[in-house]
Write a structure and sequence with these properties.
alpha+beta; 434 Repressor (Amino-terminal Domain); 3 strands; Lambda_DNA-bd_dom_sf; 5 helices
């Protein structure tokens, strides 16, 4: 992957690269987003997703750019991911390395 890629996460969970004003998919066409962040059982599914990535709550929160309390609330079922967070988690379920690379600081 080029280090100067400009990526965009679409609301439907697709990741696209911005090239000369056009959006070019970088992940092959995917089936509908998995139930990783469905309303029922999202606490255990977010925890499972984080564990599959082999990250602590603190590391996962830092990678997503959210407070660690948000991750804890999701995993304990106190809150459910919504909107962009829900889409991001669905994409992480399909292509975690791609998402984490895209979210990494430019100097890392």
């Amino acid at each position: 992957m080029r280090s100067n890629m400009r990526l965009r996460l679409k609301a439907d969970g697709r990741i696209v690269e911005l090239r000369d004003g056009d959006e070019v998919p970088i992940v092959p066409e995917m089936p509908a987003a998995p139930a990783v962040v469905a309303d029922r059982g999202s606490d255990t599914e977010v925890r499972s997703l984080r564990r599959r990535a082999q990250l602590t709550q603190t590391e996962f929160a830092a990678r997503l750019g959210v407070p660690v309390e948000t991750i804890r609330n999701w995993e304990q079922g106190k809150r459910s991911p919504r909107g962009p967070a829900r889409a991001l988690l669905a994409v992480i379920a399909h292509a975690p390395d791609t998402v984490f690379a895209a979210l990494a600081p430019a100097d890392a």
